[in-house]
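Q: Could you fold this chain for me?
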Amino acid sequence: MKRVFVITLFVFLIGIPASSHAEKEWRFVERDWKTTKIKRMVSDLYARERAGEAENYLISCGPKALEFVTPLLDDEGNESVRVSALYIIRKAGDSSYEEAVAGKLQDESPRVRKEAYKTLRVIGTKEYTEPESFHAEDEWEFINRGWKTNKIKRLVLKLYDKKQADSAKKYLSSYGPEVVEFVAPLVNDKNNENVRIDALYIIGQVGDSSYEELVIEKLRDRNRRVRQEAARTLTLIGTEKSIEPLKELLEDYNPDLRFNAIRALARIAPEQEKDLFIEALNNYDPRIRMFAVNALGKMKAADTVVYLSQMVQDEDTGVRFEVAKALGKIGTKECLKPLVWLTRDPEVSIRVLALRNVAKMDTPEAEKPLVKAAGSFDPRVASRAILSLGRLKSPKALDVARKYLDDEHILVRLACVEVLGMMGGEEERSLLEPLLEAESTKVRKRAKKALAEVDGRT
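A: Sure. Below is the predicted structure, expressed as structure tokens.
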């Protein structure tokens, strides 16, 4: 029995040093593993998507992480990392790094200076004055500018991704002139025509004419679509320096390119280029004829009426509509005859516009076509003619209003009621009073208003 006891005691005593040695080894392995993870988390501070998680872990490690975090205070290339290092030091509450933190009060970044001051208020043993150069507004402006610049750069890169290019183009167009310095270099990307087109589009939408010469160069691009987009962009930012390059495109084989060129010229060309647009009235492309008419109308040149008068029978509805608009802008007596012709146009919108412009001329000759149009079968045309007669104070306006007061179309009846209220007297009162009981709410309201106008005059 004694023998068994002695053997057991001997084995136990031998095992004590072995156990102590194993424990020491485990502590070494644990410490080495933790150090490696701290180093890994410090590197994660440079990754935007993992920085928050890394900060939380390093804070949980306490002062033991600071020997690896503190060197980041001197990373001049990344202010976010400097801010994170200061934040971790503050949370650890270790005042032994006070001197290193105090040095950051002179940092070039307002964010770093602010974080250093906040950290010193926690760990500092001395009194520190808030940096004079730090103001909340300055910091916000600095952060906002940096954030926006980074987002612009990311969106510019997305222009190379077919799936994201459209949304990136939309966002960049909404940011304003600040995006153009990042977008403009893409105009010269010879390897990607879609990117060149998107860059030109953004410049046009932003409306920055300081890049006009760069856009003019793209009018000679080897790619047809790029030339077309450059011409379209000049409709938005072009000045007189674009006129000659655009005129050269009017002879291009591509109809879309010619169209964008004439559209740009219609916006920016001065009256001296009048002959250019007169010649374009004979172009076979209706879009070009339409913008040529539009340009002549904006010039308000009376000597172009003879050319515009020849366009009242143009086969294209859009061209005839622009003719009616242009004649209204010019507004001379010579415009009356072609406008009267257009009051009989097959397209209702053209007839209505022509009637409105006839009424603007305020001449006795305008009365006859308006009286005739008042009997039109189309209520939009008839109501416009009746209202125009009333606003011209035509002697025939009351006769026309009485005649069509019971018309089946409510638009015509409402126009007649308005004219009776505008010009009528006691005789017209007797016509308006029964309408206060009319079935239509609109007629009743218009009649009530008309009666008030009659009472105001009598």
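A (continued): The two ends are 141 Å apart (CA to CA).
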